[in-house]
Amino acid sequence: MSPRTTRPSRTARTRPQLLKALDEAARRIGAQSVLLSDLVAARVGLNSTDLECLDLLCLAGATTAGHLAAHTGLTSGATTAAIDRLEQAGFVTRRRDAKDRRLVLVDVVETGVHLIMPFYEPLTHRINKVNARYRDHQLATVLRYLTDAIDATAEHVAWLQSQPPLSRHRSRHPMTAVARRPRPDAAARPEPRRPLRPRTGAARSRS
Fold first, then answer.
1. Domain range enclosing 58
2. What confidence tier does 182 reach under pLDDT thresholds 50, 70, 90?
3. What is the CATH number of the domain that holds 50?
4. Among residues 114, 112, 94, which one has the least CA distance to residue 104?
């Protein structure tokens, strides 16, 4: 599959069509962001979760593990483990808050972050060219939309934290179980022989 996506048509669209296209574009951005994060993380000796935590720390500045956990949706234990790995790799440090010694702040190590930036520089140049195509008021509209979308996603993350995990041991569909359950007298009566017939697509799907 080509890395280039099909550019949206400039012809007039109905609102449902626009919303559908917008949703698809957002999903592509999300998928590409995940893939990009995985690739960069592998090249700097991190996993993608740790790399995204580091990016959030860069945006937030010195902050606590609890504040980071609230923004990532990770548990406190998983957040602490991610910070431990980042600290061991030389990307962050911990220190006591000067105003409240009970708080432990996480600081980003700039020299470590500078080692990662070269992997993003070509993309930054391309995005700068994209930005140059739009006027200030258009960029302001895009920024407002993305900000609202981020807020909605953060609320969804908070909701997901309250949901139980999906069980991996799910029973078969009840109708399937009933259909395949042998009758009590099935073993006593031999199955009648059926003539051979060409196997249809439906038959192949059951085999």
1. 15-119
2. very low
3. 1.10.10.10
4. 94
